[in-house]
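Dear H.,

Thanks for agreeing to be a second pair of eyes. The structure we're designing against is below in token form, covering all 355 positions.
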């Protein structure tokens, strides 16, 4: 891969790209993006919330994308671009300011290509990559250094595997998938029949597949197990963070967001548009309803209804959890008051001494 540098943009160009309204000189140029508190001359920044107004007043950024309600915020740079949503505007500017790296097609001479492996040109297969027998690669696939693809693996068009990805036999990836370094897809799940009276645990063979849909991103060192007798399926548009574990036979719907160190046990069904926050844990054979929100470090041992927001362990509705926590903190003060009534400190007036 060849890394491309940034391309400077003028404020007037940024306004045209974002459909924003330019305030101040349009000839000011930027060559980078930074948060308000760290931005310097030549940087573009953004102000989307009033809580960051103090940073805006002191920023050295040359141009700032500003939400309409904050257009008149005191201080800050002279050149501002008023946009409905500064975060959405950034998504438009970033690819122009930081063009994607240009990749070169070709098969590195150290790559190992199995019998009857096929691909559609152009593809890039990096150093020491290993493709098993009958692997199928689509057009514009990029296989990073040291990747291993087992026999019969299929990878769809415009998919990128970063260095060190392992795809076991029985894994199929859709189009426009991104898999980051160290991820392992299609390994055996954790399935054993416990031994009795000192006998060895017996491994359950895993013969299902690991099926990854289109437009999915999978983070570094994440593991998605293959199915045992069913398939593990990740629905299109889902984004999975680093260090996530998805066990055998799990089925995840479309457009879900699954964050770092979340663990999803076997045969769980996650419906569309669910958000699973960092370190959330889901017990086996549960159903997580559509658009549910499982908050950070929550533990789930029962089905979750659609549109619910749950927190705590065992997980409960978020507002209920906060009320319970508040009540528990008040309880300490009540206990202190009860103890004082039962065992008053020396010299404290009591009902008997006041008669």
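And this is the sequence the design step returned. I haven't edited it by hand at all.
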């Amino acid at each position: 891969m060849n890394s491309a540098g940034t391309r400077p943009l003028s404020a007037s160009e940024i306004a045209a790209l974002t459909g924003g309204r330019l305030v101040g000189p349009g000839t000011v140029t930027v060559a980078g993006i930074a948060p308000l508190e760290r931005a310097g001359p030549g940087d573009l920044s953004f102000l989307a919330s009033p809580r960051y107004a103090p940073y805006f007043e002191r920023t050295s950024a040359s141009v700032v994308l500003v939400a309409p309600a904050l257009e008149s915020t005191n201080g800050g740079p002279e050149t501002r671009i008023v946009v409905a949503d500064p975060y959405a505007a950034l998504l438009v500017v970033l690819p122009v300011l930081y063009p994607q790296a240009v990749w070169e097609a070709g098969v590195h001479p150290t790559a190992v290509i199995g019998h009857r492996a096929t691909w559609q040109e152009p593809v890039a297969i990096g150093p020491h990559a290993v493709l098993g027998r009958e692997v199928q690669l689509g057009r514009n696939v990029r296989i990073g250094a040291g990747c291993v693809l087992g026999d019969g693996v299929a990878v769809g068009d415009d998919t990128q595997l970063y260095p060190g990805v392992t795809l076991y036999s029985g894994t199929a990836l859709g189009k426009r998938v991104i898999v980051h370094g160290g991820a392992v897809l299609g390994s055996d799940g954790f399935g054993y029949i416990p031994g009795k009276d000192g006998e060895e645990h017996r491994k359950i063979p895993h013969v299902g597949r690991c099926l990854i849909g289109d437009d999915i991103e999978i983070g570094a060192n994440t593991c998605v197990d293959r199915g045992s007798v069913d398939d593990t399926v990740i629905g299109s548009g889902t984004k999975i963070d680093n260090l996530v574990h998805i066990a055998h036979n799990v089925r995840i719907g479309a457009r879900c967001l699954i964050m770092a160190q979340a663990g999803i046990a076997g045969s769980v069904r996650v419906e569309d548009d669910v958000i699973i926050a960092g370190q959330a844990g889901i017990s086996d054979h549960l159903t997580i309803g559509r658009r549910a929100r499982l908050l950070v470090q929550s533990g789930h041992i029962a089905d979750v209804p659609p549109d619910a927001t749950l927190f705590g362990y065992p997980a409960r509705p978020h507002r209920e959890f906060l009320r319970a926590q508040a009540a528990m903190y008040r309880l300490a003060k009540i206990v202190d008051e009860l103890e004082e009534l039962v065992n008053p400190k020396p010299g404290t007036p009591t009902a008997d001494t006041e008669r």
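Two observations from my side: The domain at 9-97 is CATH 3.40.1390.10 (Udp-n-acetylmuramoylalanyl-d-glutamate--2,6- Diaminopimelate Ligase; Chain: A, domain 1). Residues 318-342 form the longest helix (25 residues).

Warmly,
E.
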